[in-house]
Amino acid sequence: MQQQTVQQHTRLGREFLPGCNLTQLTEQQVTQFKQSLWEHGVIVLRQQHLTASQLKEFAIATFGDSTLGRYTRPIDPEIDPDLQSPGVSILGNPKMHTTEIRGKFAWEWHHDKDHLPKTEGMDMNTLYVVMLYGVEIPPEGIDGKPHTTEFLDMVEAYNNLSREHQQQLEQTSMHHLSPFFPKPGSDVPMKLHPIVSTHKVTGKKGLYLGSDTSIRVGMEEKLEEAKLFWQELFETVLERTPVYAHVWQPGDIVFWDNSQVMHAGTPYDANKYRRIALRVGVVDKTST
Ligand SMILES: [Fe+2]
Questions:
Q1: Per the domain annotation, does 6 fall within a domain?
Q2: Could you tell me the distance, in angstroms and rounded to a whole number, from the CA of residue 164 to the centre of ligand 1?
Q3: The whole model's pTM is what?
Q4: With contact defined as beta carbons under 8 Å apart, do 191 and 123 qualify?
Q5: How far is the CA of 113 from the centre of ligand 1 (A)?
Q6: What is the whole-number distance in angstroms between the Cα of residue 68 and the centre of ligand 1?
Q7: What is the pLDDT tens value at each position of the chain, 288 positions in all?
Q8: Which residues make up the environment of ion ligand 1, defined by Cβ < 5 Å?
Q9: Closest by Cα among 243, 6, 259, 247 to 126
């Protein structure tokens, strides 16, 4: 599959207020922060020093409380208590002596709100923001290049399709499955979402593809065909739309809007390096 990767993107990855401290933003700056996130899809704050609780408090104060996607582990005595708080996930391999990597499944392209199907009362167009705080960053990925997280601009992806293809896709929807119940066809919750989705705040059209377990309407009984449809569509997107790779520095917090971007983590050698990243996901209850 052809893929063009860039480290500078016209829209994604804008740095917000260089030199600011996330815990000390004024009300007006928080409003600007949200506007910037909706406008750019992915924004970055650099050189932050936070505890897990402070990251979570910012998420709740800014977007509203939500338990979506939160799972709680008991406090781990081998990990710095400042990095632990209920509802904040620790990704990577925080314990030096183990090479077990948490969150490995995230190396495939996906939207983090693919788990919405198992949440009652929320439609697939709900705004779901993820914040990922890089505490310790491996100096290189498995390919010897800088450690990155990759993003695809799904508004740009829609705009890059031919008018005819856009019109075809606008007439159909896909069923989305929770990644925690990955077997299509089994008796698990699914939710319908138009392939061409309109953003709740910006009103811009973009593609929402979910993952390769998503099933196009009309293909419910033809799962092989559904998978092929998804793979061909995603391949077309990847051929035409450059991938933005965020190069991590310790202290970066990357925020992304899952209604506008897909993302994929990239592998690193856990025998050589440690990675610690704190993740908070939150439903936005303030914009709609
Ligand atoms: Fe993810």
A1: no
A2: 31
A3: 0.93
A4: yes
A5: 9
A6: 14
A7: 678 999 999 999 999 999 999 999 999 999 999 999 999 999 999 999 999 999 999 999 999 876 655 556 788 898 999 999 988 999 999 987 666 776 666 788 999 888 777 777 888 999 999 999 999 999 999 999 999 999 999 999 999 999 999 999 999 999 998 776 656 566 667 899 999 999 999 999 999 999 888 999 999 999 999 999 999 999 999 999 999 999 999 999 999 999 999 999 999 999 999 999 999 999 998 886
A8: 106, 112
A9: 259
- The DSSP element (H or E) to which 41 belongs, if any, is none
Q: How far is the CA of 108 from the centre of ligand 1 (A)?
A: 8
CA of 107 to the centre of ligand 1 (A): 8
Q: How far is the CA of 103 from the centre of ligand 1 (A)?
A: 8
Distance 130 CA to ligand 1 centre (A): 8
Is 91 domain-assigned? yes
Report the separation in Å between the CA atom of 112 and the middle of ligand 1, taken as the mean of its atom positions: 5
- Sign, CA dihedral 137-138-144-149, equals negative
Q: β-pairing, 261-265 with 42-45?
A: unpaired
How many domains are contained in the chain?
1
CA of 114 to the centre of ligand 1 (A): 9
Span from the CA of 40 to the centroid of ligand 1 (angstroms)? 18
Residue 142, domain member (yes or no): yes
CATH code at position 130: 3.60.130.10
Residue at 3 is within a domain: no
> Residue 138 belongs to what domain range?
31-75+84-283
